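task queued by scheduler; priority normal; single chain, no ligands, no partner chains; default sampling; output format set to structure tokens
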Amino acid sequence: HRTGSTNRALGYLMAFNAGAINAGGFLVLKLYTSHMTGFMSMLADSLVLGQTALALAALGALLAFMTGAAVSALLVNGARQLHLRSTYALPLLLVAVLVLLFGLVGAVTTHWTTLFAVPLTVLLLSFTMGVQNATLTKMSQATIRTTHMTGVVTDLGLALGKLLYSSYIGRAAAAAQPVHANWGRVRLFSGLLGMFFLGGIAGALGFQ
């Protein structure tokens, strides 16, 4: 039985984690691995330009992220089937172990080239972020995303627009959508965005 406050607290922590991994991973690999938009564009561009190695790299990252999301679903549904008390503990533990693995052997795995023409570290981080994003998405009924900020910034803009409308323009709308509910969404998405940013600073400093 989860509450909104526990979901928010975990969301903030995991957004910080994703920001740190994304920034630190970029300094190691020159690639952002927490979101797949860039890799999808890289795949399309590389196919048009005939750059096979880059196309394979993008495909590998996409498949690793998707596989991580699938593993998260397997762990969560398996925990429910077994009636485990902590449904989301296993995928979160897996994320922790994979981040620790990256910290311990990241420098080594940057030299281990895979069949996808990228270091093993790229696939490791993409897989990790896939596990994390799917877990938080499933836990919060798709209201909290932590590994990419495009949706968060969009939701923040929507929440601000609704807040302004219900507060100053549409008084009738305020009854259907209370102002405090809009403020709650603004605080949530601002918090996720801020924690991702702080995590990025921590990840960059930690790498240095």
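post-processing summary
- The chain has a mean pLDDT of 85.
- The chain has eight helices and no strands.
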